[in-house]
Structures are given as structure tokens and as C-alpha cells.
Write a structure and sequence with these properties.
Blueprint: E1 2-3, E2 6-7, H1 19-25, H2 28-38, H3 40-49, E3 57-58, E4 61-62, H4 75-82, H5 92-103, H6 139-158, E5 167-174, E6 183-190, E7 198-203, H7 209-223, H8 228-262, H9 268-287
Antiparallel strand pairs: 1-2, 3-4, 5-6, 6-7
């Protein structure tokens, strides 16, 4: 899509879409066009109202403020900024609070650190006084956004990805430049009175938001244990290492057998080993993951 002097592209063609499908497909062209129809002033005002440019005091710790410099941009630059590119800066805590506001009809709980909720005898160790933010989004808009995020989970990730959960969420990919892999984001909330959690998962240099960050969220949701995140990262790194080992080993053996074949040395059985035998060895090498210690 040509927006001013910039060509706003997507990784693939989406065809004709409504706003729900554009949200699920993360269509850059649709939101770049909407940004220019709304204008920089409207985008700046609503970004500030949502608390995305502010800083939160979390149990005495001040979070970094976000930054969305929409003013002075060309139409093309404004289009890219509207989909999170350019000089946009987002603090995970602010986005988590905004997720809570959508879940709660417009206002969210002010975040605070909780070491534990009860002592071994079952008594509360201390008292936590809940406070709410100002209204970050209207109740009608919050309902629409919640429905869009719920539809995104079922249509974008599959209804079976998070079984028995009324989950509203969206993934994202933040480019960081410098030749580094992008940072993966996954933000949302559970529509569950017994577990009314808003969350943000950020995997630095984790690649696509629909991969690394969702995998980390999977582990936490299924185990209800935040300490599972380091274990999931360790497993992912080990799996990545074993995959590289298998690729290098398989290519090396096949190239060696091909070279021997050029000189008439390789037999039929050696060729079979280079194909089926190497595949079996790679499978056995991958089985080591089952006995991996994560503690």
C-alpha cells in the first residue's frame, strides 16, 4: 500500500478484510491507512490517555516511560509508526496495565509487587490495598477490543492452543535494529473471575511474536507457575542447539558419502546409512531432550 512517499508492506497478501481480520492478520497496510485518516494529533491523544507514554510507580520502583513521537512525521512514517515501527518505545508494564484496563471495562489495578500471598499456616503475610488507574479506555471500546482479541486467539492461534481458557491476546514483533533478531511480545488477559490475570510476555531477540513469546506463555498458563519461564527458555535454547547439531551432522555425512561416491568408493549400504541411518541418529540425538534437567 502506497502511503505518501512510503510503501507499507506485509509479509504476505491478505486479500479483502474487515477490521477483525486485519487485526488477526496484523495487516500493516490497513492500520497505516487508518492512522493517516485519524491523524497524528488523535493518535497522540489516545496513546497518552491509554497510559502508554506514562511511567508507573510499582512498589517504589519507577518504570521507564514509553515514547510515541507521531508529530512531524510524513504520512508514510506515520503509517509505519502506527504499526509499532520507527521510533516507538513501549514499556511492558504500561502495556500490561492497559490489558488490565481492557479486561476491566476501562480501568485497571495499579501494579504492585507481591512476594507471596500467604504464610505456610495460611495467614496473609501483609495487606495489599488495591488501587485503580484513571479511565484508560471507554467501556464500549474495551468490550470491542476484548472481543477482537478473543477472536484473534481462536482464529490466529487455534482454539486448542489454550484449552479451557477464555483468553484474549495479541502477539507482536518489535524490530530492534543492529542486525539483531526482533523482540517477541505476547499481551492479553484471561476472562476468568477466579483468575483475572492480565499479562505481557517479552522475549528479547526472540523472533516472531507468534512463536517464542507464545511458547513462554503456554508454559506459564499450563503450569500456573512463573518460575517455569526460565525452564522454558532453557528448553528452547537446548532444542535450538540440538537442531543445529543434527543439521551439521546430516550435511557433513551426506557430503562425505557424495565425495566418496565420486571416487567410486561408496557402496550401496554406505548410501543407505547416509540417508536412513543418519536420520535415525538425529532422532536419537533429539531424544536427549526428554532427559534434560531444567532445574
Amino acid at each position: 500500500l502506497q502511503v505518501g512517499d512510503e510503501l507499507v508492506t506485509c509479509p504476505m497478501a491478505h486479500g479483502e478484510m474487515d477490521i477483525y481480520s486485519a487485526y488477526t492478520q496484523s495487516c500493516n497496510g490497513v492500520f497505516a491507512q487508518l492512522a493517516n485518516e485519524l491523524g497524528a494529533d488523535v493518535l497522540s491523544r489516545y496513546t497518552q490517555q491509554a497510559g502508554l507514554t506514562g511511567s508507573y510507580q510499582v512498589s517504589g520502583l519507577r518504570t521507564a516511560a514509553g515514547s510515541f513521537p507521531f508529530d512531524g512525521l510524513t504520512p508514510g512514517q506515520l503509517g509505519w509508526a502506527a504499526v509499532g515501527q520507527g521510533s516507538d518505545r513501549m514499556n511492558p508494564c504500561a502495556l500490561m496495565v492497559y490489558m488490565g484496563a481492557i479486561a476491566n471495562g476501562g480501568r485497571a489495578a495499579v501494579p504492585q509487587l507481591v512476594l507471596r500471598t500467604e504464610t505456610p499456616l495460611g495467614f496473609p503475610p501483609s495487606f495489599y490495598f488495591s488501587r485503580q488507574t484513571e479511565r484508560l479506555v471507554s467501556s464500549d471500546t474495551a468490550q470491542v477490543l476484548a472481543d477482537m482479541m478473543a477472536r484473534n486467539v481462536t482464529e490466529g492461534y487455534g482454539a486448542g492452543r489454550f484449552p479451557n481458557m477464555d483468553l484474549c491476546a495479541k502477539s507482536g514483533t518489535a524490530e530492534v535494529g543492529g542486525g539483531k533478531s526482533p523482540t517477541a511480545w505476547f499481551a492479553g488477559f484471561l476472562r476468568n473471575e477466579d483468575a483475572p490475570y492480565a499479562f505481557v510476555v517479552v522475549v528479547e531477540n526472540g523472533g516472531s511474536g507468534a512463536d517464542a513469546a507464545i511458547e513462554a506463555a503456554d508454559v506459564v498458563f499450563m503450569n500456573a507457575d512463573l518460575s517455569s519461564i526460565p525452564a522454558s527458555v532453557k528448553i528452547a535454547r537446548k532444542a535450538n542447539l540440538i537442531s543445529k547439531e543434527n543439521i551439521v551432522f546430516a550435511l557433513a555425512v551426506k557430503l562425505l558419502v557424495m565425495a566418496l561416491g565420486l571416487f567410486g568408493i561408496a557402496s550401496m549400504w554406505l548410501a543407505v546409512f547416509a540417508d536412513t541411518g543418519v536420520a535415525m541418529l538425529c532422532v536419537l540425538n533429539s531424544v536427549r531432550m526428554l532427559y534434560m534437567k531444567t532445574e
